[in-house]
Design goal:
The protein is mostly beta strands. It is built from no helices and 13 strands. Strand 1 and strand 2 form a beta hairpin.
Length: 180
């Protein structure tokens, strides 16, 4: 039974029609979303393929931008080629993947705890070292496991800035570790 939602009981197997609230005038559009640190992050939209918008703290429907610590912001990931291919929450930062790079997105807080400054830090860059798409990426605990365009699968630890390249072609051994 569906109760209290419509202020009436609904019989089993009955159809219910409810209006869908259009939020496109309030929230930015984007291919990728993630919830992190009491905010909603949305990235990669038509004509803004390298842009991330994040919401006001504790209000995923408000994107009022500003420098106050509780306000949202729009951040451009200029480094690396192509569009954003994924957003992943890791500890205090958002990890953003692109085809040729991976970046941490965070903000620093002023000494008086009232304002913030967005900080984008490239943590891995190189031809085909980023994820090809969000659907080829798996986040497990503190690691990303993803498919690249030409380098096979990579296991990447954003906090340690290290990754493991796993490949089945050429002379590269599976599980060879690299440090960025």
């Amino acid at each position: 039974k569906l109760t209290n939602t419509l202020n009436q009981n609904v019989a089993a197997s009955a159809s219910v029609t409810v209006p869908i609230v259009d939020k496109t005038t309030v929230m930015p559009k984007g291919k990728y979303m993630t919830k992190h640190r009491r905010r909603l992050y949305i990235g990669n939209y038509y004509t803004g393929e390298t842009i991330i918008n994040y919401s006001v703290e504790d209000n995923p429907e408000s994107y009022t931008t500003g420098t106050l610590i509780t306000q949202g912001a729009q951040v451009k990931i200029a480094d690396g080629e192509g569009e954003i291919t994924g957003l992943h929450g890791f500890g205090k930062t958002i990890v953003v993947t692109k085809r040729n790079s991976i970046h941490n997105v965070d903000f620093t807080i002023s000494a008086d705890l009232t304002t913030k400054t967005d900080v984008v830090t490239p943590i891995l860059a190189g031809q085909s070292l980023g994820a090809v798409s969000a659907s080829s990426t798996l986040q497990v605990l503190s690691a990303l496991f993803y498919l690249t365009e030409t380098e096979g699968f990579i296991l990447f630890y954003p906090a340690a800035r290290a990754y493991t390249q796993a490949t089945t072609s050429g002379n590269s051994p599976i599980g060879q570790d690299y440090i960025n």
